[in-house]
Design a protein that fits this description.
321 residues; alpha/beta; Rossmann fold; N-(1-d-carboxylethyl)-l-norvaline Dehydrogenase, domain 2; 2 domains; 14 helices; 51% helix
């Protein structure tokens, strides 16, 4: 089995916005990256685009000095998918989110890669189990879900299939972490965690617009400047524990009266409250936050919110929005 110490050559199959961003991250970290697409001409064109983009980011201070040169040195365009993966230790599949395209690509990738090469698919919603059936050696296959834009979004979901070797998950977790990313292991269910939450919010936002509660621009303003502002720094459970789970229960009761059972308080929330676990004010909520950390956590929160608010002021409104 490939070990993290021996991962020295990488490959990215699919050179679009998502795959290209992943390739930049790998190249900037010093790994040789063989980039493949439908044909060599597209791969070459994508390589030039990624180098030019790196130069632009460098000029804006978003990438380090000499980033474009580093990308140019480490990123190469492959003649074919087969050539790109033949000598790679770690392979990222990042073709369009169409299952037939992914299955065909993974079939080609796994047939041409070394048997000890690790293969990660960048699917954002397709179950790993559905894709693994076309992978030769599915024990070395898993989901590695990056978010757009890959160079700047820190989170990456790791999704093991039933056949995935646990050692492979550990290797990839360490490898992706070494790139400066934050990994989270999640179960193999449609949409995983990020997109399940993201699309649940989007659906409710559309309902609000459809019923005339607020215009799209107003919904965006509310989300980005209220609870979405907090979500830039804390997850929903951290926020809930700081606010108080009993407060959340009261809000659910009001929402249920207005919108029905879909807004009923979740069973787990009710159980926690019955156990006296109300959040940091009672010592425990859904998370286990020590009493000794409570004051420091609140101080961190205030400082973080103040700095984020200052950053928003410094950047100003997004153009066109």
């Amino acid at each position: 089995m490939t070990n993290l110490d021996k991962i020295s050559r990488t490959s990215v199959v699919g050179s679009g916005y998502m795959g290209g961003g992943i390739a930049q991250v790998l190249a900037l970290a010093g790994y040789p990256v063989s980039l493949a697409d439908v044909d060599e001409a597209i791969a070459r064109k994508s390589r030039e685009r990624l180098i030019d983009q790196a130069a632009q980011y460098e000029s804006l201070g978003l990438f380090a000095v000499d980033a474009a040169a580093t990308v140019a040195d480490n990123l190469s365009a492959a003649r074919s998918i087969e050539d790109a993966v033949s000598d790679a230790d770690y392979i990222t599949e990042a073709v369009p989110e169409v299952i037939d395209i992914k299955l065909d690509t993974l079939r080609r990738v796994s047939a041409s890669a070394r048997t000890d090469a690790i293969i990660g698919t960048n699917t954002s919603a397709i179950p790993i189990e559905d894709l693994a059936k076309e992978v030769h050696g599915p024990s070395r296959f898993l989901g590695v879900h990056w978010m757009n834009p890959a160079p700047f979004i820190p989170g990456v979901e790791l999704i093991a299939g039933t056949a995935t070797d646990p050692e492979v998950v550990g290797i990839v977790e360490a490898f992706i972490g070494s790139l400066g990313k934050i990994t989270a292991r999640v179960a193999d269910t449609p949409g995983f965690v990020a997109n399940r939450l993201q699309f649940a919010l989007y659906k409710e936002a559309l309902s609000i617009v459809e019923e005339g509660t607020a215009a799209p621009e107003e919904v965006d303003a509310v989300v980005s400047s209220t609870f979405g502002f907090r979500l830039a720094l804390f997850g929903p459970f951290s926020i809930g524990d700081m606010a108080g789970l009993d407060v959340y229960k009261g809000a659910y009761d009001t929402l249920e009266q207005a919108y029905g059972k879909r807004f009923a308080a979740p069973n787990l929330l009710v159980e926690l409250i019955e156990q006296g676990r109300l959040g940091i004010k009672s010592g425990r909520g859904l998370l286990d936050i020590a009493d000794s950390d409570r004051d420091a956590l609140v101080a961190y929160r205030e400082q973080a919110y103040a700095r984020l608010s200052a950053l928003r002021t410094e950047l100003g409104p997004a153009p066109g929005l």
